[in-house]
Amino acid sequence: MNHAPLTMTRSGYFPVIRWIRQDLRNMNLLLTVTIVSTLIVLVCQAIIPLKVESILHEKEGGFNKLALMVSLIILQLAATYVSHRGGHHVATLASTSLRNRIFAKTLKGKALQQDGLVRSSVVSRHTSDVDRISEALEKSIVEGLPAIIRIAQSLVILTWLQPLIGLTMTVAAFVFLGLRSIIGRSMLVIDRDRLDASSRVGETVDESITAAQAVAGLHLGAWQLRRFKRMTQRLSYKTELQGIKVAQLVVSANATGLVGLTAVLVFALTSGEDTLAIVAASLLYVENVVKGLEVLPGWIRALQQGVVSTRRVDMILLGEDRIHYPDSTNASGDLGLELKDLQFEFESGVTLSHVNIKIPTDCIVGLVTPPGTEPDALLGLLSGDENPGAGSVLFDGQDVRMPGVNPNVWYVPSESIAFNASVLEQLSAVKPDVTTANSLDILAKVGLTHLLEIDGGLHDRLGPGSSRLSRAERQRLALAIALLAKPEALLVGSLFALNDADTALPLINLIRESHFKTTILCIRHPEVAANVDLVAFAHDGGISIGSHKDLLAREPAYTQLWEQRLNFEEVDLSVLGISEENLEGLHTRLVTERYSAGEAIYRQGAEADRIYFTIAGRVEISTANPDGSSTRVAVMGPGNHIGDLRLTTGERRAESASALDDCVLRSLSREAISAGLTGLLDRTPTERRIVAAILRDGSATPEELQVRLSDIDATQLLSAVSMLLNDGALRQNGETLAVVQKRSVKAGSKDLLGRLGDQGAPIL
Questions:
Q1: For the chain, how far is it from start to end, CA to CA, in angstroms?
Q2: Are strands 390-395 and 534-539 parallel, antiparallel or unpaired?
Q3: Kind and range of the H or E element at 365?
Q4: Which of 288, 291, 294 is nearest to 157 (CA)?
């Protein structure tokens, strides 16, 4: 790591104050009160020894002079309190402003993606480095600068009282200042090295926690321990060097004071005159000098550490912004999102070259990318969080990266890391006046009503990264936040819920009802692609836009992509007891999910809406105990399924599942399984949802179905009912609809079908 040269500026002791001056704005009154209080203290310290000399030298009116001196002492004590309190308050406010400034820059700078600085170093600059700068500022205000003034005024008065003593003390003080300069220069380098060594220790701890599974699995514990010991030894060595320099400063200051004290005693012993009053006053002024000198080592150390920390903080504050803000191009008209001569390369190597298209507005556009290419990378670019290789992305005629434009474009990433805050707190981030009723409404719409049942409900913190929620729940919560914000453009990454046609359709309808100007959703299933208005297919060279059907007809690469994705990994679905003719169709409904070690897959008590098949890694099954602890029930490896088939609406998980290793799972939704059991896989998602609703909740009239499936347009629902009636999938008795779908089943499937059905819904 490169460092800027660490040298004291010509202004000597004031580099930290100058550096932080922009954080001292709007504190004029507080600074004035603090400075005036400090000056009162210094004036009192200058006058009190003179009063002592006057009382001892002139007996007449001694009690009046004594009363005046006591008043000065009381005034000095009061002013000292105000001075210290004010200095501390100034330092606290300045450090708060500085922390906010660093964090604001971090969000925009490359440090956010650990470009040039590791995570622990970025954290330390917001915490320990700011603390050192704050300490240096406070000590400068209440100790360092007053100490210099106290030394100077005491030397002047001491020289006036007794020139020989004053001259001796002045020479000693200048000698000390010379030694301080020599010691200080080397101390700056040592302080920097010590802070770097401390950062490396923190970095090692941080990476060991992050890579805990690798440390254990590859038996790297001993190696990490050796690395850690080397770093702690280096830290210990640098700390020892710091201690040596501090000791040298303290000894120099004490030696200077002792020289002055010795000079006073020599004068007292060699003088034949009655010099009691002068000696007493001289001792008091020498004491002031000594006190000032004793303050200097601690202040100098704090100041120099502060200087080092300012250099470290400058690595963030003066760093290049992550996003380059170009000159905006003004345009008129309702243009929405437009790609202009855009060039962008995915990590997979797929390159978009000279793309010039407008994303259609007032419709839902599905984004499809080639296998191995993450669509979220392109969405990050479209939302203004990445820089294109060339060209630009415009929203309403202005570059989407511009600060005034970016807030109008919201992006829900597939990365599901959330925050250690309550559900209500996270929702209030975008809508400060959100009520509990509003929160329950939006949570119900995205399928998160059950969060009310977790410990603490909507009000308790969800743990680091919202770890108390599963990844799918965190994704849905992020979508709820974006919907609550009501931006002009909504971009949604590869959410688990959008990868399955049956779970995707309600969310697509919800997003459609929100009426965004521009909407782009990542698509990973052909049936979902068929249910959006248009598809944007990003391929090597450019982006093609059209309906799913049109792209299949005119884009061979698009057709080949879906053929590849429908080639499923081997998953044993025999546990479901589904007929052989339906298995192939059900395989296409499998959704691939990935979980990091330690991450929750589902929680005990959560809605049982999916079954999971383990492809890679190990999954721990556990149950909660009344005392809050958990008991491991089993560890499931590849080839096993997890998630008991409690697929009736309202059923809850009887256990919790979490990833022991980095896991790859494939899952099936409750809706997909019910469709497979009843032979409805070739039906539209709306038709399948109608049949599933009747199976789960009993026979119903069309009006009752509309209430159960309120997110489906009434015309669309009646059309689907009519189609099912015509095909014999439903029968109608008066106004009541019932399922009459015939199907062949394998042995063992009747019990599962019984869970999916209802006694009031005949199945023939």
A1: 74
A2: unpaired
A3: strand 364-368
A4: 288
Q: What angle do CA 36, 39, 43 make, to 5 degrees?
A: 140
What is the torsion angle, in degrees rounded to the nearest 10, for the CA atoms of residue 675, residue 676, residue 682 and residue 687? -10
Q: Is 572 helix (H, G, I), strand (E, B) or coil?
A: coil
Q: Bridge-partner residues for 669, per DSSP?
A: 610
619-625 LR contacts (CB < 8 Å, sep 24+): 619/657, 619/658, 619/659, 619/660, 619/663, 619/665, 620/657, 620/658, 620/659, 620/660, 621/655, 621/656, 621/657, 622/655, 622/656, 622/657, 622/658, 623/654, 623/655, 623/656, 624/656
Amino acid at 209: I
pLDDT value of residue 11:
39
Are 591 and 646 in contact, with CB atoms under 8 Å apart?
A: no
d(CA 104, CA 118): 18
- Specify whether the backbone of 669 is left (phi greater than 0), alpha (psi in -120 to 50) or beta: beta
291 by DSSP, 3-state: which? helix
Bridge partner residues of 410 (DSSP): 490
Give the integer Cα–Cα distance in Å for 202 and 535: 47
Dist CA 412 CA 225 (whole Å)? 40
Judged by DSSP in three states, 627 sits in coil
> pLDDT below 50 — which residues of the chain?
1-13, 332-333, 569, 647, 741-764
Residues β-bridged to residue 331: none
N residues, the chain? 764
Cβ neighbours, 10 Å, residue 750 = 13
How far, in Å, are 388, 414, 450, 471, 572 from residue 593 at the CA level?
29, 11, 21, 9, 17
Question: Quick one: tokens of 669?
Answer: 């939704």
Amino acid letter for position 708 = R
pTM score of the predicted model: 0.62
**Cβ atoms 480, 514 nearer than 8 A:** no
CA distances from 46 to 40, 53, 56, 149, 155 (A): 10, 12, 17, 11, 11
- Report d(CA 119, CA 129) in Å as an integer: 14
Residue that is written with structure tokens 């290789």 in the block = 389
Name the token pair of 425. Answer: 């707190």
Q: Given this model, what pLDDT does residue 364 score?
A: 93
pLDDT tens-place string over residues 168-223: 777 777 777 677 677 766 776 777 777 777 777 777 777 666 656 556 655 566 76
CB atoms < 10 A from the CB of 505, how many? 22
User: d(Cα 78, Cα 69) in Å, to the nearest integer?
Assistant: 14
Mark out the alpha helices in 486-619 (DSSP H runs): 501-514, 526-530, 548-554, 556-565, 580-587
Count the alpha carbons within 13 Å of 335 in the hemisphere toward its beta carbon: 19
Domains and CATH numbers, the chain: 15-317 (1.20.1560.10), 337-421+468-565 (3.40.50.300), 574-670 (2.60.120.10), 678-756 (1.10.10.10)
Q: How are beta strands 518-522 and 489-492 bridged, if at all?
A: parallel
Under 8 Å CB-to-CB from 570, ≥6 apart: which residues?
Answer: none
Rg, C-alpha atoms of the chain: 37
C-alpha to C-alpha distance for 49 and 285, rounded to whole angstroms: 7
- Nearest one of 233, 237, 227 to 205, comparing CA atoms: 227
**Helix or strand (DSSP H, E) at 158:** helix 145-161
Give the single-character DSSP code of 664.
E
Q: Strand ranges (DSSP E) for 388-541?
A: 390-395, 398-399, 409-412, 489-492, 518-522, 534-539
Give the Cβ contact number of residue 74 at 10 Å.
11
Instruction: Say if residues 491 and 522 touch (Cβ distance below 8 Å).
Output: no
Cα 382 from chain centre: 21
